[in-house]
Amino acid sequence: MNHASLFKPVTLGELALPNRILMAPLTRCRADVGHIPSSIMAEHYAQRASAGLIIAEATMVMEGNSAFGMSEPGIYSPEQIAGWKKTTEAVHAKGGQIVLQLWHGGRACHSLLNQGRQPVGPSPLPITDDETHTPEGKKPYETPRELRDDELPGIVEGFRQAALNAKEAGFDGIEVHSANGYLLDSFLRDGSNQRSGDYGGSIKNRARLLLEVLDATITVWGAARVGVRISPLNSFNSMHDSDPVALTTFVARELEKRKIAYLHLMRGDLFGIQQGDVVTPARENFSGPLVANMGYTPEEAAATITASTFDAVAFGRSFISNPDLVERIRKGAELTVPDASTFYSPGLAGYNDYPTLSA
């Protein structure tokens, strides 16, 4: 098996990476009370520091927007900043680099997780294809409150402050999460954004909030240390868009203007409902580093980099159960299959106890 292309160094903006095997952002629900990043999180990320770049999990930019049972991390309090410093220091001590994914849960949140606060979104349309976990058991998603236009500058400021906090916590950059049906993505796609005015209707208007957030975070980090993740086809969280190719084209062109560090593209739909080619318009309209994600094997990843379709590939599940994934791919070793029952459970089991080849 020829994986040589995965081990060629690559530069994403100002981030010089030793290989092209990135760790995708993975929500694992291991934060302590108060959404404070825990010591076991620091150990978890340090175990995977051989990745070309670690993209840390979706992290709350503002209080009161929990979507994962109150155990996902935040970056809005001094205690959370201090907690994340443990992780960045541990990763850097192992020679790795790590960026933080900034996130607002939007309509995927629930009042039982947020002191009675109603979730918010672009339009009063609930997620209908699933239920969410709450302290009172699984519950249907609630209908979100439609955000007013005059509230959106506060959302932008929340992301800007979170970007500042991420810098204080020692990260090497940030990734703006605009995928998978959370707040920024729900504004992007017309299946969830049915508002009028400056933030609804046309693709340009629907992309306005993402681009305002992006511009605000660039003032903190500079464009060369800011990435963006999008998922134009993914139907997770009841998402849909009538023209994902046109949406991808517009967003890619706007990101091209800003010369950001990278565009992180989820190429398909987790459920296989929506079909289409969003890779071609992304590559044709964005000349910067393009990061692939969603179901790649090492062989396919190497082939797509060799063909210059993508510049790097982000692996998710493979990194859960293979802390030394880079070394395993280098040696052509068998990959450990992850235990899905421990993806979101508390504690070390299925988190920090997967063995390395040397072990």
Strand elements, count: 14
Put simply, the count of helices is: 11
Number of domains: 1
Task: Categorize the overall geometry.
Answer: globular
Instruction: Give the helix proportion (percent range).
Output: 25-40%
The CATH topology name reads TIM Barrel
Assign the CATH architecture.
Alpha-Beta Barrel
CATH homologous superfamily annotation: Aldolase class I
The largest sheet is: 8 strands, parallel, barrel
Calculate the mean pLDDT score and round it: 97
Task: Find the structural class using helix and strand composition.
Answer: alpha/beta
- In spatial order, strands of the major sheet run 3-4-5-10-11-12-13-14
Could you walk me through the main structural features you see in this protein, from its secondary elements to its overall organization?
This protein has helices at 39-47, 78-93, 152-168, 183-188, 203-206, 208-221, 244-258, 279-285, 298-306, 317-321, 325-331, and strands spanning 10-12, 15-17, 21-23, 53-60, 98-103, 120-121, 131-134, 137-140, 145-146, 174-178, 226-230, 262-266, 290-293, 312-315. The protein is α/β, with parallel strands linked by helices and 359 residues long. The longest helix is centred in the middle third of the chain and has 17 residues, at 152-168. It has an eight-stranded parallel barrel with strand order 3-4-5-10-11-12-13-14, surrounded by four helices. Strands 1-2 form a two-stranded antiparallel ribbon. Strands 6-9 form a two-stranded parallel ribbon. Helix 1 links the parallel strand 3 and strand 4. It has one domain (57-312): TIM Barrel. The relative contact order is 0.15.
